[in-house]
Design brief:
The chain is of the alpha/beta class and 465 residues long. Strands 1, 2, 3, 4, 5, 14, 15, 16 and 17 form a nine-stranded mixed β-sheet that branches. It has an eight-stranded parallel β-sheet with strand order 6-7-8-9-10-11-12-13. β11, α8 and β12 form a beta-alpha-beta unit. α4 packs across α7. The longest helix has 17 residues. It binds N-(aminocarbonyl)-beta-alanine and zinc ion (2 copies). The site of one zinc ion has 3 residues, from loops. Its EC number is 3.5.2.2. Belongs to the metallo-dependent hydrolases superfamily. Hydantoinase/dihydropyrimidinase family. Its cofactor is Zn(2+). InterPro entries: Amidohydro-rel (IPR006680), Hydantoinase/dihydroPyrase (IPR011778), Metal-dep_hydrolase_composite (IPR011059), Metal_Hydrolase (IPR032466), Metallo-dep_Hydrolases_sf (IPR050378).
């Protein structure tokens, strides 16, 4: 199969230029100006930006949190991703049965994704307890299964101790893998949760007040220092929500530590006032860490611009407002945590970031596509427009005006956290390995087309230090 994308404005993490892209059997074979090719498919991209498909390295498809299961599986979730201009996801595995080994969840997640995903995918491993067997097993997961990153949680049921975190950091440093962390101080959060419940303070705003920024920042700084103690192990902070945490990350980076930071659209665009919306609408935004005070947003945008934040992901974790989230209607502690966003990320970052002049279009491509692909080892197959890369390509029409509303989105959930936001610019075509799978917001791909990617180790490192 041969395809040519003609006359588009090609945007990479470093360049913007007019050109044509010639694709053969799903791979980019040539890039040039006015290429003369006789192709089966010709796509006119005049007036459109042509970017690498988005790479979302923080999703929770099929996530089972005990009281509820996230509503998107690997079919509905990846359809939504594709419609929003994302062509690769790296999903965070949920916890398995108590005491299970690492291979257990790898097997479960292959079962979830195979035959369902419509775009290519991988997983992050999850550590739910630390012992010698788990540490040994990591070697196989990294080197044989092609899963070189793991997440540890410093809160929730399977939180790891500081000693456990140190051991994971040391082992992954040795293996060339990446430790990713959900940083919140469990005991402090628990103290405030219990206090508020005892005082009858159970409305959604108390979710935010029970997990103040200092709870997150304390855990970030602790992990940064443990990473330094672990022979300067690489560390990736997920879903950074606030200014103070960014300051600590910057200090570590300035000291030469290999610390990466990810933030998400919700922390850039929404703030804690959302928890006060009438009729318990605030339940929609119950996520951890919670939305913060508005002033934090400018600092996070600056962190992206300055390079201290390397990745924008979604933490897509969709629970239905009218069902799952209602468990928290009388008590925020009973509400499943998480917010959808897999489809909204690229449109929001393009419109709110690029079109509003907060970040350049190249930085947008960098943080949404290229750098996540490098850090998590799917580059240059993904996250790049260059010869030899997979033809995972998205066309954005900068003149298309869209009002975000649940009805135009594809995730299997009954709300968007961004209802009513007016966007300038929207993805109009998504291609995965040379095949057009979304055209004008209509999914035309195939269930099960997506393939598991055995990932390489971090390729970003050299840019960083
Ligand atoms: O509230 C959130 N973020 N839920 C998803 C799981 C996690 O902590 O990343
Ligand atoms: Zn988390
Ligand atoms: Zn998450």
């Amino acid at each position: 199969m041969t395809t040519i994308i003609k006359n588009g404005t090609i945007v990479t993490a470093s360049d913007t230029y007019l050109g044509d892209i010639y694709i053969e059997d799903g791979i980019i074979k040539e890039i040039g100006v006015q290429l003369k090719k006789d192709c089966e498919i010709v796509i006119d991209a005049k007036g459109k930006y042509v970017i690498p498909g988005g790479v979302d390295v923080h999703t929770h498809l099929n996530l089972d949190v005990g009281i509820a299961v996230a509503n998107d599986d690997f079919y509905t979730g990846t359809v939504a991703a594709a419609c929003g201009g994302t062509t690769c996801v790296v999903d965070h595995m949920g916890f398995g049965p108590k005491g299970c080994n690492l291979h257990h969840q790898v097997g479960v997640y292959h079962g979830y994704a195979e035959g369902k995903a419509v775009i290519d995918y991988s997983f992050h491993g999850v550590i739910q307890h630390v012992n010698d067997n788990v540490l040994d097993e990591m070697n196989e997961i990294v080197n044989e299964e092609g899963i070189p990153s793991f997440k540890i949680y410093l809160t929730y049921d399977y939180k790891v101790s500081d000693e456990g975190a140190l051991k994971v950091l040391l082992q992954l440093k040795k293996l060339g893998g990446m430790t990713t962390v959900h940083p919140e101080n469990h005991d402090a959060v628990n103290y405030f949760r219990n206090l508020f419940v005892k005082q009858g303070k159970t409305s959604p705003i108390y979710h935010a007040l029970s997990r103040p920024a200092e709870c997150e920042v304390e855990a970030i700084s602790r992990m940064i220092n443990l990473a330094a103690l672990a022979d300067n192990a690489p560390l990736y902070i997920v879903h950074l929500s606030n200014e103070l945490g960014l300051k600590y990350i910057k200090i570590a980076q300035d000291r030469g530590q290999e610390v990466y930071a990810e933030t998400c659209p919700q922390y850039l665009l929404l703030d804690e006032e959302k928890y006060n919306e009438p009729n318990n609408q605030g339940l929609k935004y119950i996520m951890s860490p919670p939305l913060r005070k508005k002033y934090n947003q400018d600092f996070l945008w600056k962190g992206i611009k300055d390079g201290n934040i390397q990745v924008i992901a979604t933490d897509h974790c969709p629970f239905a407002f009218n069902k799952d989230k209602q468990m928290g209607k009388d008590d925020f502690t009973k509400c499943p945590n998480g917010v959808p966003g897999i489809e909204e990320r690229i449109p929001l970052m393009f419109s709110e970031g690029v079109m509003k002049g907060r970040i350049s279009i190249n930085r947008f491509v960098d943080v949404c596509c290229t750098t996540p692909a490098k850090i998590f080892g799917v580059y240059p197959k993904k996250g790049a427009i260059q010869v030899g890369a997979d033809a995972d390509i998205v066309l954005i029409d900068p003149n298309k005006e869209v009002t975000l509303t649940k009805d135009i989105l594809h995730a299997n959930v009954d709300y968007t956290a961004y209802e009513g936001i007016k966007l300038k610019g929207y993805p109009v075509l998504t291609m995965s390995r040379g095949k057009v799978i979304v055209k004008d917001n209509v999914f035309i791909g195939e269930k099960g087309y997506g393939k598991f990617i055995k990932r390489q180790k971090n390729m970003y490192k050299n840019n960083f230090i």
